[in-house]
């Protein structure tokens, strides 16, 4: 029966075709892995001033997709890993940004289309002062921060699709995804106004709320709650303990008494101790007398010197003033011819007053003009100017010191300036 | 018995050889002279030597952008990399080095700068970056684009990298001011 054999052959071929088609379609599905979003994983996120809301945002495949927006005033992320997969011409490529140290961010905004974490249920547009999340995995599409500090960052780009499995989409986002744009906006506004739950279904608490994770309570509330309530059952069993303390308190008294008593006699002797010390200072200086005696002949000659110093100091100040007058007068009397010695006195005077040379005799215009010409001449003749006319050095005091060094090298009596 | 295989001997044109050598040295000399006079080199690419490493104590830059790309490496014509664009930056204690195996030994050709290096228009393609990082106005975002290189990008107004090591495949600077530059070749153990 030839037609039976042909029928069997056709059936087998069809079965093979169907199974092959199924296999190939699975293969194609595996190739077309969803690369939308970048996956952010974190062991723990501790943040302050957190607000969650709903927004629509552009993705790599979509112009507007409903997302959950988390905004933090500040947050510290521990064990952060960010993975982005892209399809290049040569195959899938993964970008991995990993921080071995903590990541500190200020003013952070994250838009996510899917998220899973252990923590409190987050409600729309409600600001949570402090929030902790653990084992966070989110599919983010936008992340912004004003300031970020990433310790031990590793940024790596490799072939292949690496990274964890994406978390399931939140129910609220699933519901919103199918809505037309106008209705989507209205629904987002309704959820936001009603502060409806975003990360849990009933809004009371997530199943993982127990334990330290979730909303971080006010530490004072925690302390008060922990102390006031448990006191009732504890008060009764305390009685025998208080009774047992009596014999303990009594022995303490004798312990304290002997301590306090001996202190009194200790305080009293302090006065006599201080007195004899003061008194003893005199006899100590006395025994030093014989030691100082040999020094007396040395000290005695110094006395007249010290006495004389006072008039010397007073005379010195007067002499300086006289010297200044004399210098100015000498310059005037010299008719403008400045010798090495007069020049040195002029420069010393300028250095002492910390003024340029032309201000040593500011009241005498004729002397000032001589001194100005002297300064110009000295700067030129001593080679203290460069080719462009700029003085080397530029500091006036340094110039004076340089001029003094150069003049001091000249033989005594040398005329260093003549009009 | 006479060997039937006669070696074919070639001759070198001395004229061509010496003119090529002289023109090469002249070009290198002009480059070094211009670099030495101004301290600034313009449009400087470093490529074609395969992977090399860039290390520094600190980088402070403005106008940072990162996006993925495919590019050449020493072992592949097309390998995944990340392109880092920084508009202006200053690097302290910069070191660039490449290790070569010559015979049975390894040698390291290293360029260092003892003074801060100022760069404008940097394009840096790297396979790996390790550093302590600080960013201002950091943004990571997706874009709906058919060009895969534009689908994801990271930007920041400022970037600071400290104690950094970068596995680099390509480096280009519009201008680089590299005072205190030193080139060394040393034998290393691997």
Short description:
The complex is a heterodimer of chains A (419) and B (190). With 419 residues, chain A is of the alpha+beta class.
Order of helices and strands of chain B: HEEEEEEEE
User: Averaged pLDDT of chain B, please?
Assistant: 84
The share of residues in helices of chain B is 10-25%
Strand content of chain A: 25-35%
The total count of helices of chain B amounts to 1
Structural class of chain B: mainly beta
The portion of residues forming beta strands of chain B comes to over 45%
Most extensive chain-chain interface: A-B, 40 and 32 residues
Structural classification of chain A: alpha+beta
As a whole number of angstroms, the C-alpha radius of gyration of chain B is: 21 Å
| Quantity of strands of chain A, as a count | 9
Distance between the termini of chain A: 144 Å
Radius of gyration of chain A, CA atoms, in whole angstroms:
48 Å
Number of contiguous helices of chain A: 8
Description:
Chain A folds into 3 domains: 34-215, no CATH class; 241-315, no CATH class; 334-417. Chain A has helices at 2-31, 171-177, 181-193, 219-292, 296-333, 340-353, 365-381, 396-408, and strands at 38-57, 65-78, 81-88, 91-99, 103-118, 127-159, 214-215, 338-339, 415-417. Chain A is of the alpha+beta class and 419 residues long. Chain A has 8 helices and 9 strands. The radius of gyration of chain A is 48 Å and the shape is elongated. The mean pLDDT of chain B is 84. The longest helix of chain B has 25 residues, at 14-38. Chain B is mainly beta and 190 residues long. In chain B, strands 1, 2, 3, 4, 5, 6, 7 and 8 form an 8-stranded antiparallel β-sheet that branches. Chain B has one helix at 14-38, and strands at 40-46, 52-71, 79-92, 95-102, 105-113, 117-142, 152-177, 181-188. Chain B has one domain (40-188). The chains are: A alpha+beta (419), B mainly beta (190). At the A-B interface, strand 3, strand 4 and strand 6 of A face strand 2, strand 3 and strand 6 of B. Strand 6 of chain A pairs antiparallel with strand 6 (117-142) of chain B.
């Amino acid at each position: 029966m030839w037609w039976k054999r042909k029928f069997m052959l056709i059936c087998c071929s069809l079965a093979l075709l169907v199974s092959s088609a199924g296999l190939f379609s699975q293969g194609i599905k595996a190739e077309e892995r969803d690369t939308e979003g970048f996956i952010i994983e974190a062991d723990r996120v501790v943040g302050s001033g957190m607000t969650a809301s709903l927004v629509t945002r552009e993705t790599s495949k979509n112009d507007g997709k409903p997302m959950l927006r988390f905004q933090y005033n500040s947050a510290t992320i521990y064990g952060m890993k960010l993975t982005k997969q892209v399809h290049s011409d040569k195959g899938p490529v993964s970008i991995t940004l990993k921080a071995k140290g903590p990541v500190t961010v200020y003013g952070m905004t994250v838009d996510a289309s899917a998220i899973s974490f252990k923590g409190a249920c987050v409600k729309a547009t409600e600001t949570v002062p402090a929030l902790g999340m653990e084992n966070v995995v989110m599919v983010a599409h936008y992340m912004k921060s004003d300031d970020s500090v990433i310790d031990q960052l590793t940024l790596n780009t490799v072939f292949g699709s690496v990274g964890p499995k994406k978390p399931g989409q939140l129910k609220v986002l699933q519901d919103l995804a199918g809505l037309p744009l106008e209705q989507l906006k209205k629904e987002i506004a309704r959820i936001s106004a009603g502060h409806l739950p975003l990360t849990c279904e009933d809004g009371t608490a997530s199943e993982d709320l127990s334990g330290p994770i979730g909303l971080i309570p006010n530490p004072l509330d925690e302390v008060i709650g922990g102390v006031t309530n448990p006191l009732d059952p504890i008060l009764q069993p305390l009685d025998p303990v208080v009774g047992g303390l009596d014999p303990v308190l009594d022995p303490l008294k004798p312990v304290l008494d002997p301590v306090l008593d001996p202190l009194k006699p200790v305080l009293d002797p302090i006065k006599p101790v201080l007195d004899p010390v003061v008194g003893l200072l005199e006899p100590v200086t006395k025994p030093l007398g014989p030691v100082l005696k040999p020094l007396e002949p040395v000290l005695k000659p110094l006395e007249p010197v010290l006495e004389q110093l006072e008039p010397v100091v007073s005379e010195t100040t007067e002499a300086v003033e006289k010297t200044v007058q004399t210098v100015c007068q000498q310059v005037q009397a010299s008719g403008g011819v400045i010798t090495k010695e007069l020049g040195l006195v002029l420069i010393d005077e300028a250095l002492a007053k910390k003024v340029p040379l032309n201000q040593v005799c500011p009241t005498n215009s004729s002397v000032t003009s001589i001194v100005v010409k002297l300064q110009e001449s000295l700067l030129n003749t001593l080679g203290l100017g460069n080719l462009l006319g700029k003085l080397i050095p530029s500091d006036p005091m340094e110039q004076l010191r340089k001029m003094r060094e150069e003049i001091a090298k000249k033989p005594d009596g040398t005329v260093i300036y003549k009009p | 018995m006479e060997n039937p295989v006669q070696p074919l001997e070639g001759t070198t044109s001395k004229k061509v050889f010496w003119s090529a050598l002289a023109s090469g040295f002249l070009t290198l000399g002009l480059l070094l002279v211009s670099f030495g006079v101004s301290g600034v080199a313009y449009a400087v690419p470093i490529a074609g030597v395969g992977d090399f490493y860039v290390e520094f104590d600190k980088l402070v830059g403005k106008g940072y952008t990162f996006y993925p790309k495919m590019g050449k490496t020493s072992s592949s014509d097309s390998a995944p990399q990340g392109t880092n664009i920084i508009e202006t930056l200053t690097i302290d204690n910069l070191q660039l080095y490449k290790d070569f195996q010559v015979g049975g030994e390894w040698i390291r050709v290293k360029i260092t700068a003892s003074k801060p290096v100022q760069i404008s228009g940097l394009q840096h393609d790297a396979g790996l970056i390790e550093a302590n990082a600080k960013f201002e106005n950091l943004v990571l975002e997706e874009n709906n684009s058919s060009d895969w290189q534009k689908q994801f990008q990271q930007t920041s107004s400022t970037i600071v990298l400290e104690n950094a090591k970068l596995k680099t495949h390509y480096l280009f600077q519009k201008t680089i001011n590299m005072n205190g530059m030193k080139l060394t070749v040393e034998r290393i153990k691997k």
